[in-house]
Specification:
Helix content is 46%, strand content 6%. The chain is mostly helical. The radius of gyration is 19 Å and the shape is globular. It has a domain of 104 residues.
Length: 154
């Protein structure tokens, strides 16, 4: 998702609520915090690195893989530094930071925060299911034939 699209979508999601700030520094600060929250909750394949020296590492996945800190966009046409699916969680978190519903903290997470968490949960579940199938069946291109369910023939 391009930074310009991110801003448009966030404003659209906040219709009849509040207008997103037009101050670029404030918006980038909100974006940075939202990217951080998503990177801490999702095992983003886009942010997955093995190189500790060239990145700021946020957390460890295992002894060989780490989640790096996402970069902020330099201009409106630059893509957000996160998986496409997770970009929607980033937008939802930004909306949750500014929505007027945030004043009702006793009611639990806002609609936007819940939507972001749902996107992250679904992403992680799909990723784990994919990795489990990959471990079970291996890379399909490594085998000359597979069954009708795309599983390896024994």
């Amino acid at each position: 998702m391009r930074y310009k699209t991110f801003k448009t979508l966030a404003n659209a999601l906040l219709i009849h609520d509040i207008t997103l700030t037009t101050d670029e520094d404030e918006l980038l600060a909100l974006l940075e915090y939202a990217l951080y929250k998503v990177a801490m909750g999702a095992d983003s394949q886009h942010l997955l690195v093995e190189d500790l020296e060239h990145y700021t590492i946020l957390r460890e996945i295992n002894e060989f893989e780490y989640i790096r800190k996402p970069e902020l966009p330099k201009d409106e046409d630059e893509e957000l530094d996160i998986d496409d699916t997770l970009a929607y969680a980033v937008v939802r978190y930004v909306c949750s930071f500014v929505t007027t519903a945030k004043t009702r903290a006793s009611l639990g997470p806002s609609y936007h925060e819940k939507a972001a968490e749902d996107i992250i949960r679904d992403y992680n579940q799909e990723l784990y299911a994919f990795k489990e199938k990959q471990e079970q069946y291996g890379e399909l291109e490594e085998f000359e034939s597979d069954d009708q369910y795309s599983g390896r023939l024994i």
